[in-house]
Specification:
Chain B: InterPro entries: DH_E1 (IPR001017), PDH_E1_Alpha_Subunit (IPR050642), THDP-binding (IPR029061). The complex is a heterodimer of chains A (337) and B (324). By secondary structure, chain A is α/β, with parallel strands linked by helices. Chain A has 12 helices and 14 strands. Helices cover 35% and strands 19% of the residues of chain A. The termini of chain A are far apart. Chain B contains 11 helices and 9 strands. Classes of the chains: A alpha/beta (337), B alpha/beta (324). Chains A and B meet through helix 3 and helix 11 of A and loops of B. The complex binds thiamine diphosphate and magnesium ion. The site of magnesium ion has 6 residues of chain B, from strand 6.
């Protein structure tokens, strides 16, 4: 048997997962701004309008509160909506529907109401789109109980996690990083463009992926920082430092065991995140380590993240705020001293 | 200069700026287009074709009057006399920019002339209501003008702000620029009624629709709305039909447009039309027009040169300005 390699961009992998689930289940609908003829500003819905028509792939007005809220009512009545919030940064105008309803209705109804909604959204900076178009913010949504949080780092995971998200009976927020999608019109990390099987498959939530084994130090990370950490791993191997890279893949549920396991193995942990430093993913992982793995650590946990400033526009300013491979490598070296 | 000629000059300045900005933005982005490359990276929303909206309204404003603008802000900023050099340096991300490079093209702030804008659709309405409240509270007869695209009129902030302004009788003018599209989504797909100006009726305030992208017609309607606001009679809503000459953003393939749609718009270019009417009325001579074109070209080149010469910020400057 020959296995043919079928490399897909992450954008193609996402739209393929959605197309397959739409073919499988007539209750799956897609709506959002420019998801129709345009195919989604970031290509996550490319080809769907042509395949499934305007009754199932719906361009909405710029009314995020209404169309995200509509997913709540629609899902309660049996649809399985996939709704696109063009950039996560636009959450503000719809936050009540997301935070107080989408996240909480299942619990407040004593489990009697289920909301199988996928709210997908673009995240990330690195191309000078400034403070209102460059954030990741997944930690903000992981903070409120009731939302599952998915952040794929490559095309294979993107497809499997999207399929799982659509089949899940809970609200799932699915965050795709603009710099991983293979868009052509902005820098994209080739690392994310990998073999993707044609048939539908699922990847369970709550299982981190060990991207590369190592023995000296662990980098725990997610999203677009995974390829960066992988590159640092290759680079430092030549310097005799053995780095393990853990891709969390989902924040809710969070694979605590994998976090503790890697700390027990390497005894040093660096957390790398493209979200704000304070009160977010990096703090949460550090807290888990403090609670459950402190005895195994040989040096203090360190974090690299956005240094609690809005993302600036100007290129040198923005590059200073987003963790770079150089900064990651330097931090690892310092921790090994 | 007569008022119509001054309006004409301002429209020419804006057009020249946007055309040059399209060229500057393209620098470093070929043969392969990358949004992150070149001296001006990031998104770029240009307003060529929409000059009459900005000029027809802002022409009536004073320095103290407030303008809040959306993600496509250059025409409003220029008409409001935002410092052209510092605005351009900001778009280049340089230290002499309005925000020393922290804001960029969608986030221009010039408090000296009471101008601000935002990249979030619908964000221009509420702050204008607040500014108007401040004026009324202090007994000043200044006004606030909120500009936004027709797409923004489906955002909750639009309806909430109209109601709030109406109940407060706030001196604010809401101006909707109807360029027919919100990115790829046509107005008739997204909006339940043909004219957003009719929505004014739901809040008991005047609503006027102005066709033709005609700066004098806009100026006349704006003059009335602004006088009304200054006289303490409360808010108004204007919707102005206009046309977008470039894509939604630079790099937009515009596959969603009907064939020939763009040509129809370009054929109705408001600037030559206005120039010809000024010629016909003998308000402008060909020589004066040449002088105007030369003057605005020099202003734009001066601003671009200023921006290019301004130093890049130091990386660690990213850490300042979070708090006052
Ligand atoms: C809250 C929010 N939703 C979506 C967007 C993305 N977006 C930016 S501009 C735009 C279209 C705006 O259309 P319109 O208001 O008509 O202004 P125009 O671009 O035509 O000038 C959209 C959807 C945004 N910036 N903010
Ligand atoms: Mg528009």
């Amino acid at each position: 048997m020959t296995t043919t390699i079928r490399k897909l961009t992450m954008a193609r992998a996402i739209s393929e997962a959605i197309a397959q689930e739409m073919a499988r289940d007539p209750n799956v609908l897609v709506w959002g701004e420019d998801v129709g003829v345009y195919g989604g500003i970031f290509g996550a819905t490319q080809g769907l309008y042509q395949k499934f028509g305007q009754d199932r792939v719906i361009d909405t007005p710029i009314s995020e509160s209404a169309f995200i809220g509509a997913a709540i009512g629609a899902s309660a009545e049996g649809l399985r909506p996939i709704v696109e919030l063009m950039f996560v940064d636009f959450f503000g105008v719809a936050m009540d529907q997301i935070y107080n309803h989408l996240a909480k209705n299942h619990y407040m109804s004593g489990g009697s109401v289920t909301l199988p909604v996928v709210l997908m959204t673009a995240i990330g900076g690195g191309y000078s789109d400034a403070a209102q178009h460059s954030q990741t913010l997944y930690s903000l949504f992981a903070h409120v109980p009731g939302l599952k949080i998915v952040v794929p780092s490559n095309a294979y995971d993107a497809k499997g996690l999207m399929t799982t998200a659509i089949r899940d009976n809970n609200p799932v927020m699915y965050f795709f990083h603009k710099g991983l999608l293979g868009l052509g019109w902005m820098p994209s990390d080739d690392w994310a463009e990998v073999h993707v099987p044609e048939e539908a498959y699922t990847i369970p939530f709550g299982q981190a992926a060990n991207i590369g084994e190592g023995t000296d130090i662990s980098i725990i990370t997610i999203g677009a920082m995974v390829p960066k950490a992988s590159k640092v791993r290759e680079q430092l191997r030549q310097e005799g430092i053995s780095v393990e890279v853990l891709d969390l893949r989902t924040l809710v549920p969070l694979d605590k065991q994998a976090i503790i396991q890697t700390a027990k193995k390497t005894h040093r942990v660096l957390i790398v995140d493209e979200d704000y430093r304070s009160f977010g993913m990096s703090g949460e992982v550090a807290a888990i380590l403090a609670e459950d793995a402190l005895d195994y650590l040989e040096c203090p946990v360190r974090r690299l993240a956005i240094p609690d400033v809005p993302i600036p526009y100007s290129r040198p300013l923005e590059q200073f705020t987003i963790p770079s491979t150089t900064r990651i490598a330097d931090t690892v070296r310092a921790m090994m001293d | 200069m007569d008022a119509p000629v001054e309006m004409y000059r301002m429209m020419c300045l804006i057009r020249q700026y946007e055309n040059r900005m399209a060229e500057v933005y393209a620098e470093g982005k070929s043969p392969l287009f990358s949004i992150a490359a070149g001296p001006v990276p990031g998104e770029m929303h240009l307003a060529a074709g929409q000059e009459p909206v900005a000029v027809g309204v802002i022409h009536h404003l004073r320095e103290e009057d407030v303008v809040t603008a959306p993600h496509r802000p250059h025409h409003f900023a220029i008409a409001k006399h935002v410092d052209l050099r510092r605005m351009t340096a900001e778009i280049f991300g340089r230290t002499d920019g309005l925000s020393h490079g922290k804001g960029g093209h969608m986030h221009l702030f010039d408090p000296r002339v009471h101008f601000s804008c935002s990249g979030i659709v619908g964000a221009s309405f509420p702050p204008a209501v607040g500014a108007a409240l401040a004026f009324r509270h202090r007994g000043q007869d200044h006004v606030a003008v909120a500009f936004a695209g027709e797409g923004a009129a489906n955002q909750g902030t639009f309806h909430e702000s109209l109601n709030l302004a109406a109940t407060w009788k706030a001196p604010v003018i809401f101006v909707i620029e109807d360029n027919h599209y919100a990115i790829s989504v046509a107005k008739d797909t997204s909006t339940a009624i043909a004219k957003n100006s009719d929505r004014a009726g739901a809040y008991g305030i005047p609503g006027v629709f102005i066709r033709g992208n005609d700066v004098l017609a806009i100026s006349e309607a704006a003059s009335e709305a602004i006088a009304r606001a200054r006289a303490g009679k409360g808010p108004s809503l204007l919707e102005i039909e206009t046309t977008r000459f470039f894509g939604h953003f630079q790099g937009d393939a515009e596959a969603y447009l009907h064939p020939g749609e763009k040509d129809t718009w370009r054929a109705l270019d408001p600037i030559p039309r206005f120039r010809d009417s000024l010629f016909a009325q003998r308000l402008l001579t060909a020589d004066q027009d040449v002088a105007i074109q030369q003057e605005v070209a020099e202003l734009v080149e001066d601003a671009i040169a200023f921006a290019r010469e301004s130093p890049e910020p130091q990386p660690a400057d990213a850490l300042t300005d979070v708090f006052a």
